[in-house]
Specification:
This protein is an alpha/beta fold and 724 residues long. 42% of the residues lie in helices and 9% in strands. It is built from 31 helices and 15 strands. Strands 8, 9, 10, 11, 12, 13, 14 and 15 form an 8-stranded mixed sheet that branches. The chain has a 5-stranded mixed sheet with strand order 4-5-6-3-7. α2 crosses α10, α8 crosses α9 and α20 packs across α21. The chain is elongated. The N and C termini lie far apart (119 Å).
Length: 724
């Protein structure tokens, strides 16, 4: 197939410089990777079918250059594989090989030109992609021969390209060595941009996240099974390389494992039987946000879920509810049997697939009238994740994402197109009148795809009369660190790409509460009684009690019109009765022990007197002073007396109070001063320095040392002003 005019000349050439450069390339590459020192097995190559599929993927994502810079032409005709394998591991190997060749496309093309393969050999354009991916694997194996299994099917194109590369082995190794020396790099890995190298390092050490399928097993049973297999439960896995696992802080049903345990875990029954499912944490955060917004019988609409594991996780979280999950975006009817089989294996039951695009679904669709929450996972740039191959395989994303990752970012033109699609889908989700919340989640780090889309949709939303508008709500997920709290100050939930997690953006939009739809307690109880939830409970009594309370509240203003003079008359009668009761000293002495009990029982009906920390609420003081004498010129504390306007004087119920007798004489010449005992319930009043009320004919003592006159009541002779 290859027309080579000087292939034998190059293969027989014995050049000392080329041999030395080839040895340098082999030794430097081995030292930089350190694979031999760690005891890991050497790479032996891939099956022929993997090379073919990787070549077809690379052909669709290869970086096109301007005509004046084109070194190698890639055809448009794909290679025909022997069979289309559906094995996920097979696809993963093909995508990883194509992505690696894409990152080193410029270097590999330079090596092919420098080694005179293309000038000396006529190669069909549709085989250029196959040469690139096989050359990358050839140098990654340190230009060693590929190990071929006896039961593997061979492909003619792969065998011919492999023979060509083996014949130019020395030239290729020397060209690679010169390129490394020119760029002062230990290996071609160090020639990559720093952003790509950091991304690869994160991808190799990022922990594994797996959610528990509660349809098949409980978390306690998972912990017990892992413990039997030698796994220990810890709080953090950052600094531990042993067989350990931890429970995620945001999602209670998500477990975290170290990255090096993936192959060991995939061989356990927990993963083979779909009891544990590997998935990126951002998708678990999305479904848990939806779960926090649901009622028992609310339906859910999932849009652009990508991975069917996301749908299954949502179904597992609503296992105890009567919710139904609608999934849109499945274009092919042929996929439906496979999906149904997958959901049956996982135990999911409440899923219905809509075979149409979300943008074409009418908001008044009768099937979606009970949908209250919409989960929107739009197609995004995905620059917040570390392993694009896993993201493409799990989320069924376009392979064009690999091209953006190999360049370290998304072109501005493509980013603008993605943002417009996201805005269109979000505004369409907000038009569903029955829905009450929309959860918007991406794996992007660009504000153009995150905050800008949400704010624009809220600003230009259709504010109809029949439905309440949407508003931005705080995150419904727990914030587990100060950094998360700081990143969520504007009501957006963000997780930046780090050593333990990929990047994630999440926003919750909820409708504003309609004032006309506020439900009273009486309505809630009536609905509960109609459903039979209040058996044996009578609601009529509660309504009668409410009516009595309303009557008591409305009767208070009538009491405010009572004449204040009647209260003063009762006070005077009370004092006269107490004076007559205390004329006999012997009778008074016998009642000393019973007075506190009588006091407490009589004061009981009045709530104003019962509270000792609010003595100023007693209405007797201002009413007494207003009709007898002008107030004393001292400042009363503001928290004792609550001043009322004269035209709104409220008279409370009179209370009969017994004051305990205390011995005189007074110790102060200033007369009676206000004093409130801390441990008794008393009413008090204040009078002028020299004037007593008219119904007390005995004047007060004015000088220290004066003897009390005989006509003073015995009550005043023995009382040390407890009411003042």
């Amino acid at each position: 197939m290859f027309n080579s005019t000087s292939e034998l000349q190059f293969s027989n050439e014995k050049n000392t410089e080329l041999s030395q450069l080839a040895s340098l390339a082999l030794s430097g590459d081995a030292a930089s990777r350190g694979k031999n020192s760690t005891g890991l097995p050497e790479k032996t190559g891939y099956p022929d079918s993997v090379y073919v599929m990787a070549a077809n993927v690379f052909q669709g994502i290869q970086i096109e250059k301007s005509p004046d810079r084109v070194l190698i032409k890639y055809g448009n005709e794909p290679l025909r594989p022997l069979s289309k394998s559906k094995d996920e591991s097979f696809q993963r190997l093909s995508y990883e090989l194509a992505f690696s060749a894409l990152k080193y496309q410029d270097i590999l093309e330079t090596i092919l030109i420098d080694s005179y393969i293309f000038p000396s050999t006529t190669i069909p354009d549709h085989l250029s992609s196959l040469i690139i991916v096989m050359l990358y694997d050839f140098q990654d194996r340190k230009f060693q021969a590929r190990f071929l299994s006896d039961n593997e099917d061979s492909i003619t194109e792969v065998q011919e390209v492999e023979n060509l590369l083996n014949s130019f082995k020395t030239k290729l190794a020397a060209s690679l060595a010169r390129y490394r020396i020119k760029h002062d790099a230990l290996s071609i890995y160090h020639i990559l941009p720093e952003t790509i190298r950091k991304q690869e390092l994160r991808a190799s050490t990022l922990p594994l996240y797996a959610w528990i399928n509660t349809y098949k097993i409980s978390p306690e049973e998972v912990y017990h099974s892992l413990k039997e297999k030698g796994y220990n439960k810890v709080k953090s896995i950052l600094h531990i390389d042993d067989k350990v696992f931890a429970v995620d802080q945001h999602c209670y049903d998500v477990l975290i494992f170290p990255s090096h345990l993936k192959s060991d875990l995939l061989n356990t029954d927990l993963f083979k039987d779909y009891k544990l499912i590997f998935q990126d944490k951002s998708r678990s955060l999305a479904v848990h946000s939806v779960k926090a917004l649901l009622n028992m019988d609310d339906d859910i609409l999932l849009v652009n879920t990508g991975s069917w594991y996301t749908v299954a996780h949502m179904s597992a979280l609503t296992n105890n509810n009567s919710s139904k999950i609608f999934v849109c975006g499945v274009q092919s009817q042929a996929k439906h049997p496979d999906l149904k089989n997958l959901f049956t294996k996982m135990g999911c039951k409440n899923i219905e697939i809509l075979h149409q695009a979300f943008i074409n679904i009418e908001s008044k669709d009768n099937r979606l009238q009970k949908v209250k929450v919409i989960l929107l996972l739009p197609r995004c740039s995905g620059l917040g994740i570390s392993n694009p191959v896993e993201f493409i395989l799990n989320e069924h994303e376009d392979t064009g994402l690999l091209k953006d990752f190999s360049q370290g970012g998304t072109p501005e033109s493509k980013l603008h197109v993605l943002a417009e699609q996201q805005y269109e889908q979000l505004t369409h989700a907000m038009r569903f009148t029955k829905a009450q919340a929309v959860v918007y989640c991406t794996c992007s780090v660009y504000p153009e795809e995150n905050e800008a889309v949400v704010k624009k949709a809220l600003e230009f939303q259709d504010r109809g009369i029949k439905v309440q508008p949407y508003r931005l709500s705080p995150p419904v997920l727990p914030l587990c660190s100060l950094k998360e709290i700081h990143l969520s100050t504007d009501k957006f939930f963000r997780m930046e790409p780090s050593a333990i997690t990929n990047g994630c953006f999440l926003s919750v939009l909820t409708r504003e509460r309609d004032p006309s739809e506020t439900v009273s307690v009486k309505d809630v109880l009536a609905r509960a009684a109609a459903k039979g939830l209040l058996d044996g409970i009578e609601l009529g009594k509660s309504s009668k009690q409410e009516k009595k309370k309303k009557k008591s509240k409305t009767s208070l203003p009538k009491a405010s019109t009572t004449d204040g003079n009647s209260i003063q008359m009762k006070i005077a009668e009370f004092l006269n009765r107490e004076t007559n009761a205390n004329t006999n000293w012997s009778e008074t002495s016998t009642t000393k022990t019973s007075l506190p009990q009588k006091n407490t029982t009589q004061v009981g009906p009045s709530s104003q007197v019962r509270k000792t920390n609010k003595p100023a609420t007693n209405p007797l003081v201002p009413a007494f002073m207003k009709n007898t004498a002008p107030p004393r010129p001292y400042e009363r504390p503001t928290h004792f007396v609550r001043h009322r306007p004269e035209d709104r004087m409220v008279a409370l119920k009179p209370v009969e109070i017994v004051l305990p007798p205390v011995m005189l004489p007074f110790s102060s010449p200033q007369g009676i001063r206000p004093q409130i005992p801390a441990q008794h319930f008393y009413c008090h009043w204040a009078g002028p320095k020299t004037v007593m009320p008219s119904y007390l004919t005995t004047p007060l003592l004015s000088r220290k040392g004066d003897k009390p006159k005989e006509n003073l009541p015995s009550f005043l002779l023995r009382c040390r002003r407890p009411w003042l």
